[in-house]
# Entry
Amino acid sequence: MIGLQRGATTLGMTRRHFEDFAVGDVLPLPERRVERADIIAFAAEFDPQPYHLDERAPATDLTAGLSASGWHICAVFMRMLCDGFLLESTCMGSPGIETLKWRRPVRPGDRLKGTSTVVETRPSKSRPEIGIIRFRHEVTNQTGEMVMWMENPVMFERRAR
Amino acid sequence: MIYEEIVVGSTHELGAHTFTREEIKRFATLYDPQRFHVDEEAAEASLLGGLCASGWHTASVMMSLFSRYFARQIERAAASGRQAPPLGPSPGFDNLRWLKPVYPDDTIAFTGRIAAKRESGSRPGWGIVSIETLGTNQAGEPVFTHTGHVFVAMAKTG
# Structure
């Protein structure tokens, strides 16, 4: 009951609920700089391709120099989403990602920014306390080039009626 | 790993990983500090029923096993004297589903099925291979799936 009270009253009034999203809303995500050491540490654990670990990896016509793992870009994006609005919301998780495209490499020192645009709002049929917001998330670099985009439904609590 | 050797329909056992409480919290603290990934008490009161891994953590562990599996294949091919360039980059993926939470001490085994392959229209010398992955927990329940696409070098001709 303590957990429920904390969720429902103390934070409940100010957190962003399902009803607080409208189609067409564009939510800005805060800038985040991607450091060389983080690129290498993430790749060593999760994606040890030569071009994610070492500037001197042999170039191919699709890769040259050191670039971040695509999954590292996803993880950095997730932190931007958390800091942008998710931690101050009633987010209850996500069932998945419909489509994701990695459009450009991320290099050491790149500064990423992003937006989350609401494309659909839909109350859950099976669970009346939940609503689903579908987003198109876009991540760009410091020169405004598209780095990654995805389409993704996220579940939020609805306000008590 | 060359494009011509990849067989559509073949299934590959990528390996398994046991998620510890510590690594779940470490990943989430860096990248996904929602309460159900970092705070055990809050997680128990949530829809997810207890502390569980960030979905991006599960996906990253899949990538780790995928990457190491194909690195072993490439080493084996090179040892037998066959051409074996590393995998190319990925243009993206479709239909990623987090089907069930991954909890501390869960062991997730991943497989990859070659769903399709085609020659790249825009990148001569490269094919695009689509791989449907599936992660299953120790109770046999599917927890993760996605269809990833990856550039794979074609055999050099001439």
